[in-house]
């Protein structure tokens, strides 16, 4: 199967922080792939910007090395690199001062879309926005892309929103969450709203519970300084997992327009019940034979920051009242996996007798590593000898369904092209971010008030035992992390 590629209009994209890890690992490779696929037009231009003194050729060498390091066998060949590098420039700029801004202004065109990607630490979001305004670089066709973390709490998120609003209107601000660019996440909306099959069942009457799991095998690594100030709640739940929850629980929007979709997501956040302390389990991984503990990795022996969190969440609206949503995420777990599992209720009566084996119908949406969907249903086990029931999986992996040769775009490939198009559907709105923090802040405040400490768990496990009790008390169990 051949993917349909729709080229975008010519653009100037400035990547602030172009020498950093995110730009080298994700942004620049994504742009090169879009150019290779014919979606980035030949007139498209990319300008790397950072405080590091580099020539254009030195920057090209750095990017070429990044392609080899992060793309491996799929790295572009010499001919493609040469074409792509013709459109790749570099400028040294001081985000906190005046140096480089006039030079940047002289390189930008007035008749194309201008996009500025803030691939920098959050402390520079405000100064960059101010610099763009102060040096007259903002046009009606200007967009800015802001990476997370978008604030550290409600107060800081509001302050940042106000700073950005001083120079840009809301239609120009793209708060990026790469989870929303994943093919399976968008297919979740297609499955829900393009098929009548599930919509009549997508409510508390037929859904027993929902589990959202984002598990990682790695520790905090080089992010220790940042992570120890944020933890799993701020780093994952407030943004990535909140977005997944909203897409699962939202009402059908009146159209697939950016604000129509985001309005419905906002309603879900407003309907979230406050989380009581007994509905939360925090954990922190210890050390193993060949692995350092969390405290050792962040170099803080008495760290009280969670690397794992599990929550039971309720939604007080007509669709979901009474159906719990269980969220969990953590580092140094048994396997790397991200999935959403919708477990449906059992039939009200079994005609096959009380002793017949029974397993619930479960719709599993896999985000990684093998993107796809699985629906577990009950069938008759083949063979004579009576009616024996067996559960089987109706499995659709994108690699199998669409062909192994088809390239499924990385989330950043899709999202950056959406920025150029001016499509904000998969980006967070300011009020959505603030509502998420308004729900999250009281949970964190309760930990601080009670001096709650994370429960220890072994690296390579499924998390702390207390998380098992959280769901077992409701007569349910977590899905295996694998």
Automatic annotation (TrEMBL):
<protein>
    <recommendedName>
        <fullName>Glucose-6-phosphate 1-dehydrogenase</fullName>
        <ecNumber>1.1.1.49</ecNumber>
    </recommendedName>
</protein>
<keyword id="KW-0313">Glucose metabolism</keyword>
<feature type="binding site">
    <location>
        <position position="51"/>
    </location>
    <ligand>
        <name>NADP(+)</name>
    </ligand>
</feature>
<dbReference type="InterPro" id="IPR001282">
    <property type="entry name" value="G6P_DH"/>
</dbReference>
<feature type="binding site">
    <location>
        <position position="178"/>
    </location>
    <ligand>
        <name>substrate</name>
    </ligand>
</feature>
<feature type="binding site">
    <location>
        <position position="182"/>
    </location>
    <ligand>
        <name>substrate</name>
    </ligand>
</feature>
<feature type="domain" description="Glucose-6-phosphate dehydrogenase NAD-binding">
    <location>
        <begin position="14"/>
        <end position="187"/>
    </location>
</feature>
<dbReference type="InterPro" id="IPR036291">
    <property type="entry name" value="NAD(P)-bd_dom_sf"/>
</dbReference>
<keyword id="KW-0119">Carbohydrate metabolism</keyword>
<feature type="active site" description="Proton acceptor">
    <location>
        <position position="240"/>
    </location>
</feature>
<comment type="pathway">
    <text>Carbohydrate degradation; pentose phosphate pathway; D-ribulose 5-phosphate from D-glucose 6-phosphate (oxidative stage): step 1/3.</text>
</comment>
<comment type="similarity">
    <text>Belongs to the glucose-6-phosphate dehydrogenase family.</text>
</comment>
<dbReference type="InterPro" id="IPR019796">
    <property type="entry name" value="G6P_DH_AS"/>
</dbReference>
<keyword id="KW-0521">NADP</keyword>
<feature type="binding site">
    <location>
        <begin position="17"/>
        <end position="24"/>
    </location>
    <ligand>
        <name>NADP(+)</name>
    </ligand>
</feature>
<comment type="function">
    <text>Catalyzes the oxidation of glucose 6-phosphate to 6-phosphogluconolactone.</text>
</comment>
<dbReference type="InterPro" id="IPR022674">
    <property type="entry name" value="G6P_DH_NAD-bd"/>
</dbReference>
<dbReference type="InterPro" id="IPR022675">
    <property type="entry name" value="G6P_DH_C"/>
</dbReference>
<feature type="domain" description="Glucose-6-phosphate dehydrogenase C-terminal">
    <location>
        <begin position="189"/>
        <end position="479"/>
    </location>
</feature>
<keyword id="KW-0560">Oxidoreductase</keyword>
<dbReference type="Pfam" id="PF00479">
    <property type="entry name" value="G6PD_N"/>
</dbReference>
<feature type="binding site">
    <location>
        <position position="148"/>
    </location>
    <ligand>
        <name>NADP(+)</name>
    </ligand>
</feature>
<dbReference type="Pfam" id="PF02781">
    <property type="entry name" value="G6PD_C"/>
</dbReference>
<feature type="binding site">
    <location>
        <position position="331"/>
    </location>
    <ligand>
        <name>substrate</name>
    </ligand>
</feature>
<feature type="binding site">
    <location>
        <position position="216"/>
    </location>
    <ligand>
        <name>substrate</name>
    </ligand>
</feature>
<feature type="binding site">
    <location>
        <position position="235"/>
    </location>
    <ligand>
        <name>substrate</name>
    </ligand>
</feature>
């Amino acid at each position: 199967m051949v993917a349909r590629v729709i080229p975008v209009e010519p653009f100037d994209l400035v990547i602030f922080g172009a020498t950093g890890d995110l730009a080298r690992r994700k942004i620049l490779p994504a742009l090169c792939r879009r150019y290779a696929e014919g979606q980035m037009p030949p007139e498209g231009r990319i300008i790397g910007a950072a405080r590091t003194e580099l020539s254009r050729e030195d920057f090209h060498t750095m990017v070429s090395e990044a392609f080899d390091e992060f793309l491996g066998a799929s790295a572009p060949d010499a001919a493609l690199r040469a074409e792509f590098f013709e459109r790749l420039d570099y400028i040294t700029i001081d985000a906190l001062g005046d140096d480089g801004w006039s030079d940047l202004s002289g390189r930008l065109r007035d008749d194309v879309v201008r996009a500025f990607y803030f691939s920098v630490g959050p402390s520079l979001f405000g100064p960059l926005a101010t610099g763009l305004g102060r040096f007259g670089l903002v046009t009606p066709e200007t967009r800015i892309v802001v990476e997370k973390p978008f604030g550290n709490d409600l107060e800081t998120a509001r302050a940042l929103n106000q700073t950005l609003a001083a120079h840009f209107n809301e239609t120009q601000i793209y708060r990026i969450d790469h989870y929303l660019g994943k093919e399976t996440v968008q297919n979740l909306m297609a499955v829900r709203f393009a098929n009548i099959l599930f919509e009549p069942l997508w409510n508390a009457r037929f859904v027993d519970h929902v589990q959202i799991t984002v598990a990682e095998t790695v520790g905090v690594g080089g992010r220790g300084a940042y992570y120890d100030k944020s933890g799993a709640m701020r780093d994952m739940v407030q943004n990535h997992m909140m977005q997944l929850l909203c897409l699962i629980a939202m009402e059908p929007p009146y159209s697939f327009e950016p604000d129509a979709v985001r309005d419905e997501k906002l309603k879900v956040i407003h309907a979230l019940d406050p989380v009581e302390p007994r509905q939360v389990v925090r954990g922190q991984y210890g050390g193993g034979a060949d692995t350092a503990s969390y405290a050792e990795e962040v170099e803080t022996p008495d760290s009280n920051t969670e690397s794992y969190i599990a929550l039971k969440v309720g939604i007080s609206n007509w669709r979901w009242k009474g159906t719990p949503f269980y969220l969990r995420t953590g580092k140094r777990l048994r396997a790397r996996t991200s999935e959403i599992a919708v477990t449906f209720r059992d039939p009200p009566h079994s005609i096959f007798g009380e002793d017949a084996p029974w397993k619930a119908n479960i719709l599993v949406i896999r985000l990684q590593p093998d993107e796809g969907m699985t629906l577990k249903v009950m069938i008759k086990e083949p063979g004579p000898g009576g009616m024996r029931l067996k559960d089987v999986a109706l499995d659709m992996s994108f690699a199998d369904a669409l062909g192994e040769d088809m390239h499924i775009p990385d989330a950043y490939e899709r999202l950056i092209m959406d920025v150029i198009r001016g499509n904000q559907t998969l980006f967070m709105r300011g009020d959505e971010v603030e509502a998420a923090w308004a729900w999250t802040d009281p949970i964190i405040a309760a930990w601080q008030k009670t001096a709650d400490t994370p429960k220890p768990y072994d690296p390579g496990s499924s998390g702390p035992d207390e998380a098992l009790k959280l769901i077992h008390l409701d007569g349910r169990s977590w899905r295996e992390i694998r």
